[in-house]
Amino acid sequence: MITQTWNSISLNESNAMVRFKKKLHALKKVIRLWIGNDKRNQMNRTMEIKSKLKDIDKLLDQLGANDDLLSTRPELLKQYHDIQSVETRESIQKAKIKWAIEGDENSKFFHGMINRKRANLAVKGVMIEGEWVDDPSKVKDEFHDYFASRLCDPGIRHGVINFNFPNRLNIDQS
Asked: Which is one GO molecular function term here (predicted)?
């Protein structure tokens, strides 16, 4: 299609670069039309497959299992998933192209979001013995004391099991 369109375009332009630019512009229009038709056909095919799948599901619910229905359904599902995977790949490709073109234009926005989240998650104060304290040094000291007491070495403690085991070894088993 592209070669045919390229060869069919004839321009009466003396400048080769201008002629090349105009040919590319005309080719771009043809490609856009082709892509639009292809997307419409793909969308119609997707709707047709969904409709057939709904009909098959209704028939399976009403009539029960049928060999024709059971063999047709997986084929339709495969076609549907193939179309979806093509659309997903196209979306990924478009996102990569957009990121390559725009670059880090949104980095200021994302850094602002991260900084706002960090500010919202920051501890602004604590309750000490029923009193709200928001002085940073006192909050820091309270955190230090709390975690120091929670994470200190408990010392050597031997666990004692206070449980009667119902099964004991007799002399022959030991």
From this structure: RNA-directed DNA polymerase activity
At 44, phi and psi to the nearest 5?
Answer: -65, -40
Q: Which residue shows structure tokens 């069919």?
A: 8
How far, in Å, are 5, 8, 26, 30, 84 from residue 22 at the CA level? Answer: 13, 13, 6, 13, 36
Q: Where are the beta strands (DSSP E) in 46-140?
A: 126-128, 131-133
Strand partners, 126: 133
| Count of helices and strands (H, E) across the chain | 5, 2
User: What proportions of the chain, in percent to the nearest 5, are helix, strand and coil?
Assistant: 70, 5, 25
Q: Letter for the amino acid at 132?
A: W
| pLDDT per position as a tens digit, 22-43 | 889 989 999 999 999 999 999 9
Res. 105: pLDDT tops 70: no
Cα–Cα dist 41/44, whole Å: 5
pTM above 0.85, yes or no: no
Question: Of 120, 172, 134, 128, which Cα lies nearest the Cα of 146?
Answer: 128
In Å, how far from its chain's centre is CA 52?
29
